[in-house]
User: What shape does this take?
Amino acid sequence: MNREQRRAAAKQMKKDGNEELAEKVVLFGKLEDECLVCAKPFDKKDKEMVMSWSVVVREKEEKVNLYCPECWNGAIEMLQQAKEEILGLEEE
Ligand SMILES: [Zn+2]
Assistant: This one.
């Protein structure tokens, strides 16, 4: 599906009263084809990749951020560490 077709499909769906789905289609059209952090290529047709990679939709910014499993796990670990540090400081 090219950009024009996607727009036409979204428009049609809006007409049908399915605004939420229409927005998702438009957002999916904005999906990157590489990891936001390490630029590892992402293959939308690879089912295993689609299942294991993490997609964060920022609807306000109309952005879709894509993370490979390694970077996603790294981000979670970093958050966990930061949380522990904050909790550790609170204990003192
Ligand atoms: Zn990555």
Q: What stands out?
A: DSSP finds four helices and two strands in the chain. The longest strand covers residues 54-58. The mean pLDDT is 80.
